[in-house]
Design brief:
The complex is a heterotrimer.
Chain A: H1 3-27, E1 45-50, H2 60-66, E2 74-79, H3 82-95, E3 101-105, H4 109-114, H5 133-136, E4 140-141, E5 144-145, E6 148-149, E7 151-152, E8 155-160, H6 161-167, H7 177-189, E9 193-196, H8 203-215, H9 226-240, H10 253-261, E10 265-271, H11 275-279, E11 285-288, E12 305-308, H12 316-331, H13 333-343, E13 346-347, H14 350-359, H15 367-371, H16 384-401, H17 405-414
Parallel strand pairs in A: 1-2, 1-3, 9-10
Antiparallel strand pairs in A: 3-12, 4-5, 6-12, 7-13, 8-10, 8-11
Helix pairs in contact in A: 2-13, 6-7, 8-9, 8-16, 9-16, 9-17, 16-17
Chain B: H1 8-19, H2 21-30, H3 50-58, H4 60-90, H5 96-108, H6 111-125, H7 131-155, H8 160-167, H9 172-183, H10 185-200, H11 204-209, H12 219-222, H13 234-260
Chain C: H1 2-14, H2 27-66, H3 72-77, H4 86-92, H5 97-126, H6 134-140, H7 143-146, H8 149-159, H9 166-173, H10 187-212, H11 216-224, H12 229-240, H13 242-258, H14 261-267, H15 276-285, H16 295-324
The chains are: A alpha/beta, B mainly alpha, C mainly alpha.
Amino acid sequence: MSPTTFHRIAAIGAILATGAALTACGSSPAPGEDGSASEGNTTSKITFWDPYPQHKDGSAWDEHVKACAPDGATITRTSAPQTDLFNQLTSAVKEGNAPDIVVLDNPMMPSAVDAKLLATAEQAGISTDGVDENLLGPGVVDGEAYGVPFGSNALGLYYNADVLTAAGVDPASVTDWETLNAALAKVVAAGSKGITFSGVAGEEGVFQFLPWFWGAGADLEDVSSDDAVSAGQLISDWVGDGYAPKSVTTDNQSAAWDLFLTGEYGFAVNGSWFAAAAADTDFTTGVMPIPGRDGGVAPVPTGGEFAVAPVQDDDASDHYANAAAVIDCLTSGDAALETNETLGYLSAKPDVRAQQVAENPLWEPWVSSVEGAEGRTTKLGGAYVDVSASLSEAIQGALNAAGDPAGVKAAFENASGY
Amino acid sequence: MTTRSWWKLPLALLLTALMLFPVYWMVNVSFTSRDSIRKGQLIPLDFTLDHYAVVLHDQLPYLGTSLLVGLGTVLLTLAVAAPSAFALARLAVPGRTALNFLLIVAQMVPAVVMSLGFYSIYSRAGILDTIPGLILADSTIAVPFAVMLLSAFMAGLPGELMQAAELDGASTWRTFRSIVLPMSRNSLITAALFAFLWAWSDFLFASTLNREGGALRPITMGIYNYIGAQNQEWGPMMATAVVASIPAALLLIVAQRYVAAGVTAGAVKD
Amino acid sequence: MSEVTAARALVTRGSRPTRGTRGTTPPGARRRRRSSTWIAFAFAAPLIAYLVLFYAYPLVQNVVMSMHRFDRNTFVNGGAPFVGFDIYGEVASQPRFWPVVRQTAIFTIVSLTLQYVFGLALAVFFHRAGFRLASGLRALFLVPWLLPVIVSGTTWQWIMNADNGILNSFLGIFGVDPVWWLSTDTSLISVIIANVWLGIPFNLVILYSGLQNIPTDLYEAASLDGASAWQQFWRVTMPLLKPVTLITLLLGLVYTLKVVDVIWIITAGTGTSQTLATWSYGLAFGKGTSSVIRYSEASVVGTMLLLVALVFGLIYIAVQRRQED
């Protein structure tokens, strides 16, 4: 054959061989070793991943974490947003270079466990004593605990006292959906804007919607029930009547908070992580628990993250020992209070929580919400992600329908597929 | 300027203003304090320099890394692309059509596919979280395009000088280095411009392959420090973008002068 | 036209290695021909190695993934079952499949057309502009490229805010009612606007360089013949710009098909702004409405995207071949 044909065939062969070889190498890595924290020793370099990029190098949280390094060890901390962190953890475990500790969003726990990414709490020497059951729930899969939450945040209904007073609305009068809508009508009639919340596509929008969903009596096992549709109708009407800005379909919680900060809005559905910022505003703010449809307090979803130890390929016991040491440091004694105060969470342990409230009255309105919070994945486990996807589609459809009842109903009934 | 085209300058200014309006908005927000960012005001009534203070405190190392990665990508891209373009355009390398086609196909591969593949390779080769690794990855964005651009220009060069050099006994490498490269100066600078801009604004490769690099991450990742779990700070982000654009804009203006001149200008002495 | 023909002739003459002047090829020249082939390979070798290393592996991995049923567990621990083309069938029968394909087509064709037209108009405007600030202003047109897309995308999102965005305020001056730009129905138009804005610099630079290559004597000759500026544009500029136009359109098509970030930042791919590329991205990383990672489905959609681009690549080669003949 001619030299050029030979070269061509050789080149194609090389490409295929390289591709096949590398793909074969990639598709079946060795499973993680078993190991146990009690059998290992801490190493000098510890890697810690969390979803708090806003706490940069030198911030209070950063210093607090690094101070929890065992003697002679240094902690390297990396941050990334929630979904990215989970994906990075996935590829890291696949390649066998997972970090020692990861702080993972609570609804992702069953998915992480199903993908065999996490070591059990027992294996990694993580203690779950003294933690409230409802907060621990998302991290328990098939009866086995896989990590421990530092604390929880919760959703509440912030209000701008100045705007409400100017509109002649008494915050104490808001006790159910009817009175809330009446208050919104008065606020808008007085020339202000109504309410901000986040209806963005994805888990964040679902997180914000769940208090209304559960407050109407709906259940995650049936997303198209009449109760669910009524909750969807509530938020859809807000957009249609002009009580909520149209940007709710793309605003995440931070963007919704930015809107509230302008001082033009009467109400904001947002989280306890903004409690300190709310106290700092130019206008007077207050916060109340989110009302249920027919009165009472609506259950809110458990917020916050779990500290977990990923599965390791080599020297697993040493890595688990690292995890045990650092997590123990962050969740016991005075450090536990510091952890939650720095992050803006209410501790998952009732005694530490009581201490937090005693020292900082800002937390008082949030205690009942945290104690009544429900885990999203506690009952559904790994099936939650699909339910969340359907609910997110439904929320987006409902908001876009801007009050049209047929549109809202269709959004909740047709949400499926990918 | 003739009276006939007096309208050209105002029209140009108007078009530029329209095009750059989003940039103006970005600068506007960078000087607005957080409370007023969503008010939609045309000028920063709630003026603050706090965001810039934060940026200058946090972002300078990332800016340095971005510059380094950008320049490294330019060098690597040109080093791979120029000889190949020469081979494709003037050396009658066999399989030219196939190679040309492959270059187009290479640019069709979505970046997501590339970065997932790269992660395993880099992890095994141990070049995760390194600057050379990132330079290598960023060059994949620019190399196929650079080869196409350079070979198009090199094909248009008059062959007489090269033939003359060959008759004088110069080797192909010598011809390439002393005749073709200088004549292609403007297209090389155009290719360098694209390579730099693409490397400068790359986020996907940086976030996949350079996560734990600390200060050795480019500015596109530094900006993400302001996107937290529940809290995003647009003021510092916009300020970072403004600060990051300045060195790149200066490089652009300098490079434009070379891109402006035609390919054959000054290349062949009449 | 004769100068262009002469230049073309030079090109064809210059691209072949020299032959011996007599009929038969002397042995020295034959040796030189074979060694010049090796030299050609040596020059092209870095590129070939580069292409194999960096593009072949991800491509092969992508196609392999599209034929196995992967989830997060099997991705990490192996054992994904081989299912042939089943997943292709499943993806194609999703209710959202054909709408997404249609949206991708609209997004690509409209973006491409507008980017090209605006880029060409600006290039012609700045070419032979005659005023001093021309090159400076032209450089400023590249500034959109310097900005991280997260920043420019978010800025567009604010500009298109339904309640207090500048775009609605501007339209309000002409009495137009506020438009909910980011709602399900109009989100496609919104992302097209932002994408066109981002694409103008690329077209401007390439087309401007192409215009520079056209010898000015041709314009002088044409105007001496009495051709108006418009006629000069159609009879001189456009035909000579054809190769540059082809490559700009092809590359523009390839890049536009891949666009994810600007759409994602503005609308997260919701509503009619969902294209094959954003769908694949959401499936691959568990973003958007669903946080379930579907690696296989993402690879399937990615492969479909690649095939579409490939078809246009082949069309380009065919057109280019016909042009050279």
